[in-house]
Design goal:
Length: 409
């Protein structure tokens, strides 16, 4: 199955593109919704809405739902329009988050829902060989799970300094990558599928703006705490990248009261205090787990190990103190914290909230600090969003530039 592509670009296509994006995002936020409702919500004329719904339906992005139409009304029936989701055979995107110990694969539909997910461990794979091995595993995963749905391409998210325009990892210290053309390497391994790349903290922030809480569309800060620690800022629906796409490096943000030594020569840096790597090392020293693996610590706490629980609460409070600094500097409507234990157990989120509110000078509302809306599915959703966000901003252009091999069937 393939998606139709729009015709040649002509004068006035800029407005046509903007109108198509407005209609598509309105359907995302309110669908199923009749054309008259789209016009009312978007401010577009009924004629413009009708034209764009026709274009978007031809491209396979929306579909009519006549079975939900209002019956017994006078005049033309009000047939609702909704996104053509993966469950109904609509288009999907592949997603891959490349972590340090493992990668997470996903198939995500136009509403950011995860239809399939798989963990791909990096055991025995050297960082130099990782892109090729990940691409091979991802291709096998997509062959099993996409089936006859149109595949729009692949979104990829990774920690460190990422330049999405160039598709490169500028710097990833944990993997030893510098100026790595990761998007191109993955695309080659995937047989020419379109691959878009971004930093994982920015990708999660964008997924919150696109699919998450309304407050995120006003302003948010996202803090990612894993083996890599970084952050992202979104204002008015746009995630900030900065010159060279270097925004978001908070590894050396000072954590109040932390004395953890950092390789940079200072003490109390956030990554040296709270990363998964440090968490695993401390857990081994304390005899909680046999090997340095943050997931083992989380599992031990869930099984009732009080030492593991105490260590996770210590980490949560350190994350909360760093969150307070971000709140005071940026004062966003929402702070989203991606941290493994708080994704799985709300008690650890409460520890983060408590430490942040106790220290912050501008925030006395703990509800402003939340976990990602997708919960444990945050990584595949964020990776898929790297590809879906350009689609929702310019649907006609995004579909038109896909390589022909991006549609599978």
């Amino acid at each position: 199955m393939t998606l139709a592509t729009p015709g040649p670009r002509m004068a006035g296509d800029g407005r046509r593109e903007a109108n198509a994006a407005t209609v598509l995002r309105t359907v995302l936020g309110h669908g199923p919704v009749a054309r008259s409702g789209i016009a009312r919500l978007s401010g577009l004329s009924p004629a413009a809405v009708s034209r764009q719904c026709t274009d978007l339906a031809r491209l396979g992005l929306v579909r009519e739902l006549p079975e939900l139409g209002a019956g017994g009304t006078v005049g033309r029936p009000q047939i609702p329009v909704d996104l053509h989701t993966g469950a109904a055979g609509g288009p999907v995107t592949g997603g891959v988050h490349l972590g340090v110990p493992l990668s997470t694969f996903g198939v995500v539909d136009l509403r950011g829902r995860v239809l399939a997910r798989h963990m791909f461990t990096h055991d025995g794979i050297e960082p130099e060989d990782l892109p090729g091995q990940v691409a091979r595993g991802l291709r096998e995963f997509l062959d099993r799970t996409v089936r006859d749905r149109p595949l729009l391409g692949v979104g990829a998210a990774v920690g460190g300094w990422v330049d999405p325009g160039e598709g490169t990892v500028v710097r990833h210290d944990a993997l030893g990558w510098h100026r790595r053309p990761l998007a191109a390497e993955l695309a080659r391994g995937l047989g020419g599928l379109e691959v878009r790349l971004d930093n994982h903290a920015r990708a999660i922030a964008q997924s919150e703006i696109l699919f998450g809480r309304p407050a995120a569309r006003r302003s948010l800060v996202h803090l990612f705490v894993g083996n890599v620690v970084d952050a992202a800022l979104g204002i008015a629906g746009v995630v900030h990248q900065g010159p060279g796409s270097g925004a978001g490096d908070v590894a050396h943000l000072p954590v109040p009261d932390s004395t953890a030594p950092c390789p940079c020569g200072r003490t109390g840096c956030l990554e040296a205090t709270a990363s998964n790597t440090v968490l695993g090392q401390v857990a081994v020293r304390r005899g909680i787990v046999p090997e340095s693996d943050a997931s083992l610590v989380v599992d031990a706490a869930a099984a009732g190990d009080r030492r593991a629980d105490r260590l996770l609460r210590e980490r949560a409070r350190a994350v909360g103190r760093a969150t307070a600094l971000l709140l005071d500097v940026l004062n966003p409507d929402l702070v989203v914290v991606t941290e493994q234990s708080s994704l799985l157990d709300p008690d650890y989120l409460e520890e983060i909230r408590g430490a942040a509110v106790d220290l912050s000078h501008v925030c006395d509302d703990p509800e402003r600090i939340v976990s990602p809306h997708a919960g444990p599915g945050v990584l595949p959703v964020a990776a898929g969003t790297v590809l879906l966000n350009p689609l929702f901003r310019s649907p006609l252009q995004a579909i038109g530039r896909r390589p022909s091999s991006a549609a599978r069937g």
